[in-house]
């Protein structure tokens, strides 16, 4: 197991996605709202090194934002 302690994994949690023209993005200021293709009840997508591995949901408890894994989707082989 000591070998696994040295492996780095990039974890990304995606709330949703959208496509917008770059000139719109460059005009955005602080507080701008970007509409995503998901709503508040859709599961989050959790990626490890750009590979979808799980789905989850947001939880806020005592001021801490947490992601709870609700479904494993990555399968080896």
């Amino acid at each position: 197991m000591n070998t696994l302690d040295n492996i780095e994994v990039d974890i990304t949690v995606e709330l949703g996605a959208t496509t917008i023209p770059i000139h719109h993005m460059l005009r955005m200021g602080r507080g701008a709202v970007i509409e995503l293709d998901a709503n508040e009840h859709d599961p989050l997508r959790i990626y490890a090194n750009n590979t979808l591995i799980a789905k989850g949901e947001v939880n806020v408890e005592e001021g801490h934002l947490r992601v709870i894994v609700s479904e494993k989707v990555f399968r080896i082989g």
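DSSP finds one helix and four strands in the chain. Residues 4-72 form a domain with the Surface presentation of antigens (SPOA) fold (CATH 2.30.330.10).
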